[in-house]
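User: Show me a protein chain along with its predicted structure.
Assistant: Here is one chain, sequence first, then structure tokens.
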Amino acid sequence: MSGIGARPNDHVARLQFVASLDDQSHDWELVLRESHHRMKNTLTMLGASVRRDFTCAATRDMSLAVDRLERRIVAFGRLYQLLSDSHDPSAVAVEPFFENLCGALSEAVLEPAGIRCEAAIESGRLPAAQCHRLALMLTELVTNAAKHAFPNKSGALIRIELRSHDGAWICTVADNGVGATGPLQGTGSRILEGIARSIDARLHGEVGQGGTRVTIVMPAIA
């Protein structure tokens, strides 16, 4: 009798296992799509900066342009290392990780475009998977703002805040740009929403005359 009774449970267990694998596969595809999307966008920005610097190099010291390019490439490498090194099963210290991420974003993406970056990061710990997926989302939002929010770069600023409140982590990316288009549109937004679902996070965007503000609310997992 025990053998007969075990079959339905075994079947349910197999179905749950297969569903879990399907979820993991879907999550991994989301991360891959975001990585490819991000690589395409950042290489486009790098190419534009190279054209700008070396077009003007005839009237300036060529070695300065080469040094700037080298620093940006190193910063891009640091950025991608932070975004891809997600296999550590242990918890990640939030403050040093995201301060390093913001520094790499600033050096690789924002400073060459004449955009200032301010960051306020609280201390704490997050599971590695949550931490790295939140980092992917933050990077997408910052890069999107750098590309679209500042047709006039004068006084351009992106502010990043990450804090813990009432059992959740709240991440905000705000710019003082033109706010001409919705912050959650296009291919990047679909990937953002997919990654948000994979970590049970919620996205909220606001656009106004003072710029664009996107907030990610993610439950803290012990």
